[in-house]
Amino acid sequence: MAVLLLTWPAAPRAQAQRSGGTLTIARPVDAVSLDPHFETTAPGAWVYQLILEPLVALGPDMKIKPVLASSYKVLDATRIRFTLRRGVRFHDGTPFNAQAVKFTFERAFDRRNPGRWASLAGPIKGVEVVDDYTVDIVTSEPYAPLLYSVAMVYAGIVSPAAVQRLGPEFSRQPVGTGPFKFQEWRTNDRITVVRNDDYWGPKPYLDRIVFRVIPEESARMIALRTGDVDMVLVPAPAQLGAFRRDPAFTVAEAQGLRVVFVGMNLTRPPLSDVRVRRALVMGTNRKAILDNILEGAGGPADGILAKGVFGYAPMELDKRYPYDPDRARALLQEAGFRPGPDGIMQREGIPLVLTLISARGRYLKDAEIAEAWQAQMRAIGVRVDISFLEWATVFTHVRAATLDYHLFMLGWVTTTADADYSLLPMFRSNMAPPTGWNTWRYVNPEFDRLVDQARVSTKAEERQELYARAQAMIARDIMFIPFYTTKEIAVMRSYVKGFVPHPIEYNQGFAYIWLEK
Known about the structure:
Helix content is about 25%, strand content about 25%. By secondary structure, the protein is an alpha+beta fold. The strands form five sheets. Strands 2, 9, 10, 11, 12, 13, 14, 18, 19, 20 and 21 form an eleven-stranded mixed β-sheet that branches. A five-stranded antiparallel β-sheet has the order 1-5-6-8-7, with helices on one face. It has a three-stranded antiparallel β-sheet with strand order 15-16-17, with no helix packed on it. The termini are far apart.
């Protein structure tokens, strides 16, 4: 079996770097947690990926790069052996070793309190310690994307001593081996990390990074203009052209792997009727939203996977369900609804009212899209009542065993760039929350069989074919309306150097930025 020796990539050296200074980054929402055991969304990962490091990671070129493992060897279809880096210490001074890796994985996969990563990591059975600096990660069945699963940001190795000492507080003050250390978290205001001067790898240039919460899009851009912050994430699309033309600023951009959508709860009538779901899709003018609201800051979405993900197959939703309000109204009538006196469809005297939960600012233009879509639904006779809540509250609702809303605005990024990461935990029948991410509660044994077969196959062509069939099945039974695929865009003052945008939102490269001022 092949042994891959990994070489730590040097920090950017194309220009003369300057050490010191504070980088202030504005973003729309606060973290849910700083513990990957609980937080699998970007607002937390942006911070803890600087503090907690996995064994390997995916670089901006989507290739595996070393972090806490110096090499690995694929022993067979269910086992990879990792040689760990020596001389590494956690921020609390305790040593990084094989026992720490074992502790982290056992904590994440503890059946009594499984981490959210566990539902996304595939059939990982556990970690076997070979010696102090060698571990085997073992799966219960062949699993082709295993290395990419270990490379996820959620797989950051935690300090066992800190977890035991801090208990639940670890989620607010994590301790890892990374280039930055946690310093402070003021909820809904800012999180600060400071340089780890004892870091085992190339030392960061910045003294500290401050992640500020500025919910209003216009306020974030003003803060950048005035120099109150140095970088903005989730910038205002309408202002990107002006910032690109202004030499005082730099706009960095990468094609993202996230799809932003409205999901449908199939356990809540009338969404259990596929005719109603298809009506909602055909009543949605996705192009108008893309053109008029996103203004080039997002790309068209054709399904639940973005192009660039292994296993992607076009779902051809525009052909299956072209924008056709008349046909949408006809489908609702086939489902037993008739126009009411106020134009809202009704059945047996009960108006067709759907409830939608959304954050305001978690995803680019999420609130504006929700309101525009609400108007489009009104045009086909569907009233949508929107509840805008804080992101952490939305996340909690969506992850609960019971979802009390008909609809939810959500985004999903295929963090491993492999379809298994999305199709199995999001759609398999046994993956309803809180176990998995089947937030629509889709139940289809035939679909289950396809994704199960694809997961254990080690033949790329076979997996591609199985995933294409699975996506065609989802398109037929449609339970979401995709609005756009993301572009990972950051706008910064021109003195901010060294930032390389990453296609995966969670993995943005803040660690080796320097300030040329």
